[in-house]
Design a protein that fits this description.
With 264 residues, the protein is of the alpha/beta class. It is 42% helix and 25% strand. It is built from 10 helices and 10 strands. The strands form 2 sheets. The chain has a 6-stranded mixed sheet with strand order 6-7-8-3-9-10, with helices on both faces. Strands 2-1-4-5 form a 4-stranded antiparallel sheet, with helices on one face. Helix 4 packs across helix 5 and helix 4 packs parallel to helix 6. The termini are far apart. The structure holds adenosine-5'-triphosphate and magnesium ion. Adenosine-5'-triphosphate binds next to strand 2 and helix 2.
Amino acid sequence: MKVEETTMTQNAQTAVKNVVQVRNLAKSYGPLTVLKDVSLTVAEGTVTAMIGPSGAGKSTALRCMNLLEKPDSGEIIIDGHVINAGKKISPKNLAELRRSAGMVFQHFNLFPHMTVLKNISLPQERVLGRSREEANTKSMELLRRMGLAEKADHYPSRCSGGQQQRIAIARALALEPRVMLFDEPTSALDPEVGVEVLEVMKELAAEGMTMVVVTHEMSFAANVSNELVVMADGSIIEKGDPREIMSDPQHERTRRFLRAVLER
Ligand SMILES: Nc1ncnc2c1ncn2[C@@H]1O[C@H](COP(=O)(O)OP(=O)(O)OP(=O)(O)O)[C@@H](O)[C@H]1O
Ligand SMILES: [Mg+2]
């Protein structure tokens, strides 16, 4: 009986797949150490919210995860693709990693000289080798889902900030990533527009998308995320159940940050 129980527990444990594993990540810009020994695991289908004061290294950590920044040391494994900072990274490995991790930025970063449809279709053609027709079909499906089908032939500048951010999310989703990385996706938006974007993110989470979200939206962190990571001065100072950390932060730096955010 005991043996069976152990086996079942082991099976249950091995059934949990980690989509993201970051180990001992370190990064400096010249004399400035930005990340010190950052380790993080994100299980499939979970949402990790990352918070912390300005300059803590949140964006750098996220950018290292899909190698927009090159870490100095450490290891990143995304969906089984292993990147070791100490070793040369092959273009194939880099492409696979980038494809596995979709990124959404604070300022959307859409291509201004391309229509909305082209913004979403071109990466599919380039990265996945889809035909234009296949790519456009997929793009329209995603635009419909975002309630933005009528914007397909517009240029991004004719879309509101909230619409542009949903287009950016559609562009990332079109590559069928295994994890979505969001860097303060609503902080450049008016609160009422930000809500539309948060709704889309909430839906993605409910559908089981694995996500890492740098955010100051504490209600999103409390209600949607499964894990809260608090960063300060280049390190993870606290991580665990979001509501527990918010109601009973263990670190003075976390307490100070939460007070500052909640008073805004
Ligand atoms: N390309 C760069 N060159 C030099 N320093 C940089 C560079 N990018 C970031 N830094 C520095 O690294 C530190 C961490 O920056 P990072 O953007 O990761 O912080 P953050 O936690 O995302 O802050 P915020 O909440 O303001 O977005 C900061 O001190 C920043 O000035
Ligand atoms: Mg940042």
